[in-house]
Fold:
Amino acid sequence: AKMAHRRVETIRAYKAYIPVSLFVYGDFAEIFPEMVLNWSLNHTIGVREGHPYPPGHFDKINPRWIRTNLIISVLRLQDLGLQPAFYLPATAGRDITHAAAQRDLRVVNPATRFPPTTGTLLTYSNYYHYRDVERVPKALRMISTALGERGGIVSLDSDHPDSYMISVFLLDYLVENSGFQLVGINDCIAGA
Structure:
């Protein structure tokens, strides 16, 4: 929670308005309701699963559990008076898309995630071996390459130790250098 709070406050303090959507796990909303409500004043709140899963495990879960997990997460946000419209799943297979559609949730498929969950994954030799001042430019290059010329949604995992530094420099890149128009998630997701 401390890392997420720090990241959101950094974005909020940035010199230009950044239309950020925050996706919270159901457990997080239950444990930190005041924080989620405070975030909802300035940001779109979307839903994740009930809790984080180890990489690769979400795909192996029984589809009924996915549905139940999603319902519980939505209910936890509704208990706070929030109605999520967007769902950022760990992966977006057919069962997940179907479960989201049953809850009237739009599935978010980011153009890029950090840390990456597909393609070139972070390893000791290609990332962690380097000092943080060397890792941040590598991460920004990965994000910029994935966005290409079309842009898209960027997903940063607030639990990754480099996410704070990356977000600080990413804001400057997106606002000052990328040439992208920064828009809210409603303008990014077709049919939203």
